[in-house]
Write a structure and sequence with these properties.
The complex is a heterodimer of chains A (about 375) and B (about 400). Chain A has 11 helices and 9 strands. Chain A is α+β, with helices and mostly antiparallel strands and about 375 residues long. In chain A, a hairpin with a 2-residue loop joins strand 2 and strand 3. In chain A, helix 4 packs across helix 7 and helix 9 packs antiparallel against helix 11. Chain B contains 12 helices and 7 strands. Classes of the chains: A alpha+beta (about 375), B alpha+beta (about 400). The interface between A and B is large, with 49 and 52 residues.
Chain lengths: ~375, ~400
């Protein structure tokens, strides 16, 4: 048994750390968020150059290997610095759907472009009213000869406003929550009938609400076979869930570190507040939460990479997301409370870390949802 | 033992309820329900409505234009206000500085300041905390040096709520550095228009600049604005802090929010064909909050009963502050739970008065995360919950 990083993982980790140290301080991040695009194209090109965009992909797809453990190592570092570049939305989620569901030709055409940083994608799956149920798809796809016509509304589409191509999850048959009948279509974001409302989320990442009104796409834009996409979507969302969980582990690590350091310098009643036992115990509890969160994310990553059956993998992801959700609440809230008023301000990074982990708790299903999913599997 | 109101009290309750139903403007109510902030003008307008009814200052004695109500009547009034969601008058004038002026101000100061507070003509703000003096308030450093008929004030104050609206600020200042820290503090009233005062807005996590840092650079304040005696300010300040800790449990507001949570849950799809009101985890949380509110309500009533027989509010009010704020924060989490993806967009400007752009997300759900972030302040301000627990351990448990 060995939980240490391999040499490759260590290199990956150091490579991200070096980038963050050199090019991603808090002020730079704020400027990136304030920009129209909401992420840095320069950074994205660099990610491609450094090979980071290949990490989520299997070797057979031309990737680095697609190991969840590698992905987790990287995401944790992203989380510490609260990177807003659309790594999960583009490379993990959209790339994952194409890799799982696309035909050989579709993969050959699209995956290299993603890995080279030349294609921005967004996966539009969630809908108003679907909450976290991936099978709850009301957006309709009606075939008319060689054309498919899409109608519906999509919500929480990460990277939706920057994507050139939208992966629209739509229903071709069956009732609203059936697992069969769901397909994914590649839709040019500039198509007639597509309207996109862009905004930044509380964690600074760009997102969008998208409506589709009589959007026509050639039937050849369907990924893989008709009506069979739910499992691919589920697998990709599971990997994205693991990624966001690992990202939260990194952010929590930062929250803990910054809180402990602050408690050593902030003086009240003539002494550093870190000398108060009441606060020491609470920081010890934060540490415990961080450790348990890291452990369960490692467990889930290992299960995703291992020989477990699909059910066990999915269950492990829900276990991780449920448990880190609990840690997020504790670590995030205590970090703000121990900082006091200053932790509530926009000018300190601690508050932004708190907002980032809060978004992570919701993304791809919140704590209650994943606890229930774990229980039901 | 009984927890019943008398016939007179019940009649009073009906009167209050009818007044609020008829006179609390519906448009303000709609805004509050949609998570939109009331403007300064709207808040003042509402306070003047209360003034005209004679109910602006429930906590003031009748001789100064207060209601002269019993503790139970005040409780009934606060309950009805909370249930309908009407904002309490901005506390800095009415609840904080006024009691200090009444108790320790000169007759001239009373005549000069109290009527304008009562009538909401003058907006006050608070100058207590400093960047390096939070929970340890007595360590404050802003100095006031006597020079002829004036004090010259230098330093800075922070967490100054709505200072951008304020005409006056009440400040704790250091007038003697040679004695124990509590013994060199004075209580000074300062006109915000005095040269040398600058305000720097502090944007909080919800994107709203609700608080400020206030800088004093050789600000000349007439010595006649000193309350009571020099270097006795800490004693006066403690009176003020006790008043800050009454009516803090927020039970009525909590009940109103619990009802809103239930309504919202009934209208929120669970994603599987039902609503969140049928979701077992969420139902359990609703029940837990409901039960906690009842325990808190009866704790408050017990405190109230003690007040009615003339006992001063004791350290037990710390219980109300701790439990009330933590319960409010728990409900914030539940609003976030219900909102799901709907509360992720960060578009704070859509909750500012007069927003003209395209709104993102369905109504109040979109505000859930912002409220969750902002309300982390509840356990920090007004004497942090850590300080409240210290009070309980020292003053109640004798540790």
């Amino acid at each position: 048994m060995d939980f240490s990083n391999t040499e490759e993982q260590q290199m990956l980790q150091e490579s991200v750390q070096k980038f963050v140290y050199k090019s991603y301080d808090f002020d730079t991040r704020n400027q990136i968020i304030a920009s129209e695009q909401g992420f840095s194209q320069e950074n994205w090109d660099l990610f491609a150059e450094l090979g980071w965009l290949t990490v989520p992909f299997k070797e057979e797809d031309g990737g680095f290997g697609g190991a969840a453990v590698d992905l987790a190592v990287m995401m944790e570092e992203f989380g510490k610095a609260m990177l807003v570049e659309p790594f999960i939305a583009n490379a993990v989620l959209s790339g994952g759907v194409i890799s799982e569901q696309g035909s050989a030709e579709q993969k050959a055409e699209l995956l290299p472009k993603i890995m080279e940083g030349k294609l921005q994608l967004a996966c539009a799956y969630a809908e108003p009213g679907s909450r976290f149920n991936l099978a709850n798809i009301k957006t309709s796809a009606v075939t008319d000869g060689d054309t498919v016509v899409l109608n519906g509304s999509k919500t929480a589409v990460l990277n939706g406003s920057n994507a050139e191509t939208l992966l629209v999850v739509a229903r071709e048959s069956g009732a609203a929550t059936d697992s069969e009948g769901v397909s994914v279509f590649m839709v040019d974001a500039s198509s007639a009938g597509v309207s996109i409302q862009a905004f930044a989320n509380v964690d600074g990442k760009k997102s969008a609400e998208i409506s589709l009104k009589d959007v026509s796409v050639p039937a050849s834009q369907r990924l893989g076979a008709s009506g069979s996409a739910l499992q691919a979507l589920q697998n990709s969302v599971d990997r994205a869930t693991l990624a966001v969980s690992a990202e939260a582990v990194g952010a929590m690590e930062s929250l803990l570190h910054k809180t402990v350091e602050y408690s050593k310098t902030r003086k009240q009643f003539g002494t550093a507040i870190g000398t108060f036992q009441a606060l020491q115990h609470r920081m010890a509890d934060m540490f415990i939460e961080c450790q348990l969160a890291r452990s369960i994310v490692i467990m889930a990553a290992m299960k995703l990479d291992g020989g477990e059956d699909a059910l066990e993998k999915t269950k492990a992801v829900s276990a991780a997301k449920s448990r880190i959700g609990k840690a997020i609440q504790k670590v995030g809230q205590e970090a703000i409370q121990i900082h006091g008023g200053i932790g509530m301000t926009e000018e300190l990074d601690v508050g932004h870390l708190f907002k980032s982990v809060t978004a992570a708790e919701i993304m791809f299903g919140n704590t209650d949802y994943h606890t229930e999913r774990f229980a039901s599997l | 033992m009984n927890a019943d109101f008398t016939a007179e009290e019940l009649q009073f309750e009906t009167e209050v309820r009818e007044f609020l139903q008829n006179d609390f403007p519906a448009e303000y109510r709609a805004k509050i329900d949609a998570g939109i902030r009331l403007s300064k003008e709207e808040l003042v307008d509402w306070q003047k409505i209360l003034y005209r009814k004679g109910w602006a200052a429930p906590n003031w004695p009748a001789e100064h234009g207060g209601t002269g109500w019993t503790a139970t009547q005040k409780h009934i009034f606060a309950t009805e206000m909370g249930l309908i969601g009407a904002p309490e008058p901005v506390p800095f004038g009415m609840k904080m500085v006024a009691p200090v002026i009444m108790a320790y101000g000169s007759d001239e100061q009373k005549q000069r300041f109290l009527p304008d507070i009562l009538e909401s003509n003058v907006w006050w703000c608070q100058g207590y905390s400093e960047p390096n003096s939070g929970s340890d308030l007595a360590s404050l450093k802003t100095s006031a040096v006597r020079d002829g008929d004036d004090y010259v004030v230098n330093g800075s104050k922070t967490w100054n709520t709505y200072g951008q609206y304020a005409d006056w600020i009440f400040c704790l200042v250091r007038t003697d550095t040679s004695v124990k820290k509590q013994e060199g503090i004075s209580f000074l009233l300062i006109d915000m228009k005095t040269p040398g005062i600058t305000l720097k807005p502090i944007v909080l996590l919800d994107g709203h600049a609700e608080v400020n840092e206030v800088f004093f650079d050789d600000v000349r304040v007439p010595a006649s604005n000193l309350i009571g005696e020099e270097n006795k300010g800490w004693t006066y300040a403690k009176v003020l802090l006790t008043h800050e800790r009454t009516n803090i449990s927020g039970v009525p507001r909590g009940k109103r929010r619990l009802a809103a949570l239930k309504r919202l849950a009934g209208n929120t799809d669970d994603g599987f064909g039902g609503t969140m009101l049928e979701n077992s985890a969420f139902k359990t949380k609703l029940a837990q909050v409901d039960i906690e509110l009842q325990a808190l309500e009866y704790s408050e009533l017990r405190t109230l009963a003690a007040l009615s027989v003339g006992k001063a509010p004791g350290p037990e009010s710390s219980i109300l502050k701790i439990v009330g704020t933590e319960l409010a924060q728990e409900m914030d989490e539940m609003f976030v739970d219900l909102a799901g993806y709907n509360c992720l967009p960060f578009v704070p400007e859509q909750f500012e008065d007069g927003f003209q752009g395209e709104a993102v997300g369905p109504g109040s759900s979109a505000a859930a995360a912002l409220t969750y972030f902002n309300n982390r302040k509840l356990s920090i301000f007004g004497g942090s919950n850590e300080i409240q627990r210290n009070i309980i351990s020292k003053a109640v448990l004798g540790l």
